[in-house]
Design brief:
The protein is α+β, with helices and mostly antiparallel strands and 395 residues long. It has helices spanning 23-31, 41-51, 53-66, 70-73, 75-98, 108-121, 125-149, 154-226, 232-256, 264-275, 294-315, 354-366; strands at residues 280-286, 319-327, 330-337, 369-375, 381-388. Helix content is 62%, strand content 10%. The chain has a 5-stranded mixed beta sheet, with helices on one face. Strand 2 and strand 3 form a beta hairpin. It is elongated and about 110 Å long.
């Protein structure tokens, strides 16, 4: 893992003495100190960029905190963001001084933030793009102050802004590829896990019922030979077992035959009616479903359905509360139960497998949402989904 950034750690960009340059000038450039009067405008501006490193990163951190960015709230992501920002400043300074945009083969820091950190901290690509936008604005504002003091530096400033935009864009593209690969792997694993879940459901829901029906039919055959009058109850029991197995089969196949959700409330009501036998379930839906896209509605239903399934299967609750609030700027949903609870993320606990909580998190990420799970043994479970519409920031 990349070491956390501390201001000044990367402030010294070591360079070989420039042709014809003095030792003093090269030392000033390397240290990020004020350029000498003999320096050209591009060299002077590059030195100013390096000297501003600490101020830019400090302002960047404060801006992230002010907007309540998840990047600032998660310690490892914050450290990585500062390290990433310092690397960008180094590249921009080199670009201004050298007259081109340095291109790295890969940008492991930002890729790590998207591919790995988000799995634990629930950072979405939207969170990281907003953080990149904030860094761009902070850096441009800092560099613009030098142009105000010295208009001769305007061409240098233009070069720096173009380089900054290109460097950030390249990093975003690299990170996006890493994130896409991460999601493809997770989707593939989710498909494997889903097939296993279907196999378990067929075995658990149908295997027992069909075994009972077969046994009753065997007993009916034996009893009908000895005493036809006593065989009737066996046939009735077999018929009842087959009917129950058919009912369970309909539950399983209804999950597999899930079409696009036209009405989120209607789909939830139907699913609740099929599974809520031993608990009181209350559902409340408010707002206009047309405020959310069909893709968001579909994925939100699958996430809520999985949360309900987990509660009913693992939680043994007496009551389950389900809420969906749709607004022009977001979809907010939650499932809360008073069941036995568990330790989130602990191996072996209910829902810790990929088919449960992990698949819900991945579905939330696919629609740019954030899933929060709060639970403790004996205190029930609270699952919350928040999806902001494009162009709106999380509050």
């Amino acid at each position: 893992m990349t070491e956390p950034f501390s201001p000044g750690a990367e402030g010294n960009d070591q360079q070989a003495p420039s042709p014809g340059g003095s030792v003093a000038e090269d030392s000033a450039r390397a240290s990020g100190g004020p350029p000498s009067e003999a320096s050209g405008p591009y060299e002077r501006f590059a030195a100013l960029i390096r000297a501003d490193r600490g101020a830019i990163l400090s302002s960047y951190a404060k801006s992230l905190e002010a907007m309540r960015s998840p990047v600032a709230a998660e310690p490892r992501a914050r450290d990585q963001a500062m390290t990433n920002g310092s690397e960008v400043i180094t590249d921009v300074a080199a670009s201004v001084q050298g007259g081109d945009v340095p291109v790295r083969d890969r940008y492991p820091t930002l890729a790590w933030m998207i591919e790995e950190a988000r799995a634990e901290s629930q950072l979405s690509p939207a969170d990281l793009l907003r953080a990149a936008t904030v860094f761009f604005d902070v850096t441009v504002n800092s560099l613009a102050s030098h142009v105000k003091d010295d208009p001769e530096l305007l061409p240098c400033f233009t070069t720096a802004v173009l380089a900054l935009n290109e460097i950030i864009s390249k990093r975003i593209r690299e990170a996006t590829l890493a994130y896409t690969g991460y999601l493809l792997e997770r989707v593939d694993q989710a498909q494997i896990d889903e097939r296993r879940r279907i196999a378990r459901d067929l075995h658990d829901r149908l295997g027992e019922g069909m075994s009972v029906a077969l046994r009753q039919l065997e007993l009916h055959e034996i009893a009908s030979r000895e005493d036809p009058l006593t065989s009737a109850p066996r046939a009735a029991a077999a018929k009842e077992a087959i009917a129950e197995a058919m009912r369970r089969l309909r539950v399983v196949t209804s999950d597999l035959r899930q079409d696009s959700v036209r009405s989120l409330e209607t789909a939830l009501v139907r699913y609740i009616d099929s599974v809520a036998d031993d608990a009181e379930v209350r559902l409340r839906v408010s707002g206009d479903e047309t405020w959310a896209s069909p893709a968001v509605i579909d994925e939100a239903f699958l996430i809520i359905r999985e949360a309900i399934r987990n509660a009913m299967t693992h939680g043994a609750p007496q009551m389950v509360l389900i809420g969906v609030a749709l607004a022009p700027h977001e979809l907010h949903a939650w499932v809360e139960d008073n069941g036995i609870g568990f330790v989130p993320g602990k191996a072996g606990e209910p829902g810790a497998a990929g088919t449960g909580l992990a698949s819900m998190r991945e579905r939330a990420a696919l629609i740019g949402g954030r899933l929060t799970i709060v639970s403790a043994p004996g205190q029930g479970t609270h699952v919350e989904l928040l999806v902001s519409r494009p162009g709106h920031r999380d509050k």
